[in-house]
Design brief:
The complex is a heterodimer. Chain A is an alpha/beta fold. Chain A is 36% helix and 25% strand. Chain A has 2 domains: 144 residues, Rossmann fold (3-Layer(aba) Sandwich), CATH 3.40.50; 90 residues, Rossmann fold (3-Layer(aba) Sandwich). Chain A contains 10 helices and 12 strands. Classes of the chains: A alpha/beta, B alpha/beta.
Chain lengths: 270, 656
């Protein structure tokens, strides 16, 4: 494949070359076509948003990227090579981490333990050593804990480190989920509706953290979001989907003025 | 004014103390901070190296003698080091309140003409950048936490650790100059400049010398026998004189360890982990903790609840006596030991008070119940009275002479004088040098002989020799018979009852005192619920006869305690009414910080005040109220006025 050049964003940030490219993706469930013939790419270091009305196929798209679904037709290129069909954990090892639309944390475990699970792909010690907390297992856990503590510090959740997740309010659970994804030190971070159900203040906090993550670690972020204000402020480029088709792609300002997008969101007289 | 003895052993500055500690306590911990989930620590030797590197870095940046270096942020070892490093190079550290908004900072930064700012993080840096155009002398800023700072213009910005690195690299070039500058520091050079909070007018910069800090730290450390083994948690604002004296003055004098919490939210967990041996908190913190305990006990199981109340009752009976070493019977001692095992010990552990040897509270009046609760658990909680201008200490309570209604005896080296007006004056080695660039205010506060006016009215109790603070002098008035009228003193006593939210006492220039009362809707509402009393509004509950009875009994109890004060016996409340609305900042009756505006309340409810004095039993009144959305409305009510039992005054005096 040809390595495309990076670009410079409106606020002057240099974005790297292509990290992932989706070519002519079609996804069918039996007779239902969830996604039909969509192509787009994600560049290194950018914040890429996928938007669209309900049922447009956004979450399916994210599931394809994270490897949960395999596209019926089409290819997914990642870091310069075509990605074969893989198990989700194999894809996670390749540096893809995600959060879920409906929070998927271990409710009975503490925040710290939950975030530690994000490091599982970085642990190689055998079950015996783990059980005895001996040798390699011990060294690994100490190293991993350090990474986790830095994430906890970064997301300012030190005060709930030892709190069981089940006792936390919704907005904080979302932040813990982000922490778990970040702990994996991903090269691409997928966020499925990170602000759904949040109040204005929580949204502001979350937006700030997303920008900070992108800024501090240079993590590429692909997110699905309904709040237009948030999407337009955060993202560098936006893909717009409707009924499984791509109807727009480009910087937020361009997409905002695209007639197809306006029609999809506001409806058109038939 | 008599010159006090010069410092011993040449320990006449904080950097000199640091040098001593680095040798004497070299491997003992000096600082700890929880970061990344672990307590990171620095020994005195390590800390002195870090501070030296920073001082060299500051020289490299061109800090001059006499420059002001502003320090902004929450309590972190790096910022304490910054203060000492600034002193080393002959500059004056000026800690600022981290939660101040940019405009407040602008006033302070331009008033002291700070050339250098050391800020904790991006938030503080942003505030200073916002106002830097107005600061003519400002040149360089250092920041500790590099998060989010990568893209800033670094022409005038420097990362803390880089400045240290540069200092280490330039060691040979600057070390001689640094040694000379440290050597120049005397007992009279400025140690720190602290801005008063400025409740009245603009903040004033209080200049404190090494003499002030070291003499106060020495005297107070000896007073409580502080050693290098103490542990404290530094969590109160760095700009406040108390934190400076506890976390820097006393810590350097005695050589103990200062622990910094991970963040403001983790303070409680960190307190438990550190279990300080020396602790300071304003009454509000103790009150918050007690409320938390009580709420959690309400939710506890029946057995635990019963055990808690049973042993707490016993603790209240014998705890304070045990603490003060008074004789207590064998059975009571055994029962207390059992309670320690079952209740007090675990409770203190949960609060982080297991090792507290000396605890202080100050700032506001503390309720006797609250005070006794902590003391009955065996926590040596004491009161002190002080202010920035005195380098904290004016009076404090010695072990074994602790009471909730006095503030103790004069601290070592402090002289106290009470003027005829009742105002308290003091003179001590801690007395401040001056207000920076403000000779008029300095002259107003401190006279040529070094006596400083506190602005508080008080008196010495004859029986114990302890000082009692009554009120701010400007609030204290005279009654028509010439007796002292101290409304806040009476109001505070009444406000300690959970049922009473606010009280406004009248009586200046009158023959007797009367009061408006606001009931506490949560507490009284709770009582009403338990007793099946239905009510629809504050007004209805406030007018309930049983509520009036309860409040009347509270006032009568208070009258008894006031009558025991020969100077204030005239302030007993003769009549009262319960207001038909809660005093509210929206109606201008209170300030935004919930302090009653006595004068405005008096004018607004003029008809009610008249009724309190004309002997009528009830009064009809109409009041305009402002709703939260700004609409105005009117409420009407008929209020009952009750007479209360008053203790005879003359008899008491005759008996003495």
């Amino acid at each position: 494949m040809t390595e495309t050049e990076g670009y410079v964003t409106a606020d002057g940030r240099q974005i790297g070359g292509q990290l992932m490219e989706l070519k002519n993706i079609t996804l069918k469930f039996g007779g239902v076509t969830a996604i039909s013939d969509i192509s787009f790419d994600i560049h290194e270091g950018e914040i890429r948003a996928i938007i669209g009305p309900n049922g447009a196929g956004k979450s399916s798209m994210l599931n394809i990227i994270s490897g949960f679904y395999t596209p019926t037709i089409g290819e997914l290129w990642y870091k310069g090579s075509k990605r074969p069909a893989m198990k989700p954990f194999e894809i996670a090892r390749m540096g893809v981490a995600r959060t879920f639309q409906n929070i998927a944390l271990f409710e009975g475990m503490t925040v710290l333990d939950n975030v530690m699970t994000g490091r599982l792909t970085h642990m190689n010690a055998g079950i015996g050593a783990q059980a005895l907390w001996y040798g390699k297992a011990r060294d690994e856990e100490i190293a991993n804990r350090e990474v986790v503590e830095k994430v906890i510090d970064f997301l300012e959740i030190q005060n709930i480190r030892k709190t069981p997740v089940g006792r936390l309010p919704y907005g904080l659970k979302k932040r813990v989920e982000l922490a778990r994804a970040l702990a994996a030190e991903p090269s691409i971070l997928l966020l499925d509706e990170p602000m759904a159900g949040m109040n204005v203040e929580e949204k502001e906090d979350m937006s700030r953290f997303i920008l900070d993550v992108n800024d501090e670690f240079g993590t590429t972020i692909c997110l699905i979001e309904h709040d237009m204000g948030v999407v337009m402020d955060l993202s560098d480029r936006v893909v717009v989907m409707d009924y499984g088709k791509k109807i727009g792609d480009g910087p937020p300002d361009e997409v905002r003025n695209n007639q197809d997008v306006i029609d999809a969101y506001l409806g058109v007289p038939h | 004014m008599a010159k006090l003895a010069e410092s011993t052993d040449g320990l006449c500055s904080v950097p000199a103390l640091l040098q001593r500690n680095a040798e004497k306590f070299s491997d003992r911990p000096a600082y700890r901070e929880k970061e990344y989930g672990i307590w990171q620590s620095w020994t005195w030797k390590e800390a002195s190296k870090e501070i030296e590197a920073l001082a060299l870095g500051l020289l490299n940046l061109g800090v001059n003698r006499g420059d002001h270096v502003a320090i902004i942020g929450r309590n972190r070892p790096y910022l304490y080091w910054s203060m000492v490093a600034a002193q080393m190079v002959g500059a004056v550290p000026v800690p600022l309140y981290a939660d101040a908004v940019a405009e407040e900072m602008e006033y302070v930064l331009s008033h002291c003409g700070a050339r250098f700012v050391i800020a904790a993080d991006q938030e503080q840096v942003d505030k200073v950048i916002d106002i830097q155009e107005h600061l003519h002398q400002f040149e360089h800023m250092l920041y500790v936490d590099p998060r989010g700072m990568r893209k800033y213009d670094h022409r005038r910005l420097h990362e803390f650790s880089h400045v240290q690195d540069q200092g280490r690299a330039a060691y040979d070039e600057f070390i001689e100059d640094l040694k000379i500058r440290i050597g120049e520091l005397t007992y009279d050079s400025t140690c720190v400049m602290l801005y008063t909070s400025g409740t009245t007018g603009k903040p004033k910069g209080v200049v404190l010398s090494n003499r002030n800090i070291i003499a106060s730290a020495k005297a107070s450390s000896e007073f409580d026998g502080l050693t290098e083994k103490e542990e404290i948690l530094a969590y109160l604002p760095m700009a406040w004189v108390g934190d400076f004296i506890f976390s820097l003055g006393q810590a350097y004098w005695a050589g103990f360890c200062v622990n910094c919490p991970e963040s403001a939210e983790t303070m409680k967990t960190d307190l438990r982990e550190i279990a300080p041996s020396y602790y300071f908190a304003p009454p509000a913190v103790f009150e918050g903790q007690l409320t938390q305990i009580m709420i959690r006990m309400e939710d506890a199981g029946n057995f635990k609840k019963k055990m808690f109340h049973h042993y707490m009752a016993h603790a209240r009976k014998v705890g304070p006596d045990l603490l003060e070493g008074k004789p207590v019977g064998m059975m009571d001692r055994l029962k207390y030991a059992m309670g320690e095992f079952m209740v007090y010990g675990p409770l203190k552990n949960a609060l982080g008070f297991s090792n507290v040897r000396v605890g202080y509270t100050a700032g506001e009046a503390i309720g006797p119940e609250l005070f006794d609760f902590y003391r009955s658990l065996g926590i040596n909680l004491k009161q002190l009275y002080g202010q920035t201008e005195a380098t904290v200490f004016i009076t404090q309570q010695p072990d074994g002479e602790v009471r909730s209604d006095t503030v103790g005896v004069p601290s070592p080296g402090v002289e106290i004088r009470i003027e005829d007006s009742g105002e308290v004056f003091y003179r001590s080695p801690g007395t401040f040098v001056e207000y920076y660039n403000n000779p008029e205010s300095t002259a107003d506060t401190k006279d040529a002989e070094g006596w400083v006016a506190t602005g508080d009215a008080g008196f010495f109790e004859k029986s114990s020799g302890h000082l009692r603070i009554i009120d701010r002098i400007k609030d204290v008035g005279k009654m028509s018979d010439g007796g002292m009228f101290a409304p806040k003193y009476v109001e505070n006593k009444l406000k300690f009852y959970p049922n009473i939210l606010e009280v406004v006492v009248f009586g200046a220039g009158r023959d007797r005192c009367t009061a408006f009362v606001n009931i506490d809707l949560t507490a009284v509402g709770n009582w009403a619920e338990r007793n099946n009393i239905a009510y629809a509004s504050y007004q209805e509950l406030a007018g309930h006869p049983e509520v009036l009875d309860t409040i009347q009994s509270h006032i009568e109890e208070t009258n008894i305690s006031i009558a025991q004060d020969e100077m204030l016996a005239g302030c007993q409340i003769h009549r009262f009414l319960i207001l038909h609305k809660e005093l509210d900042a929206d109606d201008g009756e209170m300030t935004r910080t919930r302090k009653v505006r006595r004068k405005i309340v008096g004018e607004k409810f003029d008809d009610l005040v008249t009724a309190l004095y004309d002997g009528s039993d009830e009064i009809y009144t109409e009041t305009e109220v402002t709703y939260e959305d700004g609409r105005k409305g009117k409420i009407t009510a008929t209020l009952q006025i009750r007479d209360t039992k008053v203790q005879p005054v003359a008899a008491k005096i005759a008996a003495e």
